[in-house]
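RECORD TYPE: inverse folding
INPUT: structure tokens
STRUCTURE:
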């Protein structure tokens, strides 16, 4: 079978898959009034090391202005805070707060349920292979 039109575009199919996965993820996070982007920020900060806005933007795939607004909203909810960077006290880093860590722990089950739903729909082995293939694709293109 030959695929034509948008269905023949890898970029289009990846975007469609991302939207579908994120739609389910957004539903899983809605109970805590948390967006997918905010969840990614909290997850990136969960290592406890604190990150500069530049590091965070790269990690969560967000442009700086959008990230700044999202971080400000998380600060307003006391889920993250800005403080001096561990390596250079003159630099500012963003850290997850205890309240943010508690929120991450609360949504962990919903996130796991969402991942299990994908595995049930697509198959565990296929899901794991897809994740490996996507990681390999990213590494080969960077």
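DESIGNED SEQUENCE:
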């Amino acid at each position: 079978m030959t695929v034509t039109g948008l269905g023949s575009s890898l970029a289009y199919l990846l975007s469609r898959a991302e939207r579908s996965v994120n739609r389910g993820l957004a539903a899983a996070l809605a109970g805590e009034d948390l967006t997918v982007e905010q969840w990614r920020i909290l997850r990136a900060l969960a290592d406890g090391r604190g990150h500069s806005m530049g590091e965070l933007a790269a990690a969560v795939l967000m442009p700086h202005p959008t990230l700044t607004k999202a971080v400000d909203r998380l600060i307003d909810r006391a889920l993250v805070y800005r403080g001096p960077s561990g390596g250079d006290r003159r630099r500012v880093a963003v850290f997850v707060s205890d309240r943010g860590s508690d929120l991450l722990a609360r949504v962990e089950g919903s996130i796991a349920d969402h991942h299990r739903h994908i595995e049930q729909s697509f198959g565990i082995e296929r899901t794991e292979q897809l994740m490996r293939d996507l990681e390999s694709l990213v590494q080969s293109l960077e």
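NOTES: The beta strands are 80-84, 92-96.
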